[in-house]
User: What shape does this take?
Amino acid sequence: TPGTADFESRFDFIVDGARRIESLADGLSSYSLALRIDPGSFQFTRLDAVLRTAQAKLAQELRDHGAEVTSGELPGVSGSPDRLVQVFETLLRNALQHRAQLSPRIHITAEKQAEEWLFALRDNGPGIDAASLDSIFKPFERLHATKHGGVGMGLTICRAIVERHGGKLWVESKIGTGSIFFFTLPASRG
Assistant: This one.
């Protein structure tokens, strides 16, 4: 009956709204945690182990998309292991969500530069147009908003985490050439 279809449509709308509110609350909570990271609690953290943990969390998604994740040698740094896992997990998930027709290929490298490490996460995705490069780090901004879930806080949170660790996070990309997410972290002393 028309009444039942109308009720189901309204109910679906309410459930969808509740999911979005829950997702927004989770995003804001994660952002708040990122802003309150205490550098005094940092510990020596092996980033090869951090990457393996992020890959384990995304194992099913990586398999579903036929993704290949490779890396060069990754160093240890002083930091929050859980938050650094979050950075890798978010960057890997973004590469999976914003992929081209090809199976995702993601390669992570680290290069020592004076007092810091420069990390690069390269993907073979469709790339990002120049006008969007800065906006993707703003809260609630998403590329292809109708295609992917989430509230647009992932990269905002990643940038906050990296900055609380004393580093910077940015992206370089062109349409059709994939993207390279760069971030720096201070080199551990000793």
Remarks:
- The first strand starts at residue 43 and ends at 46.
- The chain has a mean pLDDT of 82.
